[in-house]
């Protein structure tokens, strides 16, 4: 039996195109007409804010679509102990990182030199990445083999 591909509805695709073009226009207009009134770090914070808005505007409808169209293998994975809480953490922590970087660049970065700001950026991104690895690695070691078997069985059927 061939799996049916779930095509997303047109409004989500249209929203993605419109939001992407609108974001690009915003960045161009911002840089051309308003950026001169702010220092580099505040401009970076404003662009990060626009990216955060774009993520929320596009993330919510696409996440709802994805949740409605989870295949059976995915539903089994969601029911596995600890998966849902890890997904929530994997959404909240990077979101918090982006908010932290926005606040840092807008409010505090101008008190430090470029190298110190790069260091703050790298340390914060690496800390979040390490944290994500630390929360997912135990789950993957415990449950990975179960879902790996299912994937291999599905591939053999096709």
What does this structure look like?
The structure is a single chain. By secondary structure, the protein is mainly alpha-helical. It folds into 2 domains: 1-69; 71-158. The chain is 84% helix and 0% strand. It has helices spanning 10-34, 40-68, 72-79, 83-108, 114-157. α1 runs antiparallel to α2 (40-68), α2 runs antiparallel to α4 and α4 (83-108) runs antiparallel to α5 (114-157). The chain is flat.
Q: Tags for this entry?
A:
5 helices; mainly alpha; 158 residues
Strand content: under 5%
* Largest beta-sheet characterization: none
Number of helices: 5
Which blocks of ≥5 consecutive residues have pLDDT under 50?
A: none
Judged by helices, strands and strand pairing, the structural class is mainly alpha
- Kindly give the count of domains: 2
Principal-axes shape call: flat
Helix content: over 70%
| Topology order in helix (H) and strand (E) letters | HHHHH
Radius of gyration: 20 Å
What is the averaged pLDDT score? 90
In whole angstroms, how far apart are the ends?
A: 8 Å
What is the number of strand segments?
A: 0
Compile the SSE list and pairings.
Elements: H1 10-34, H2 40-68, H3 72-79, H4 83-108, H5 114-157
Helix pairs in contact: 1-2, 2-4, 4-5
Quick summary:
84% of the residues lie in helices and 0% in strands. The protein is mainly α. It has two domains: 1-69; 71-158.
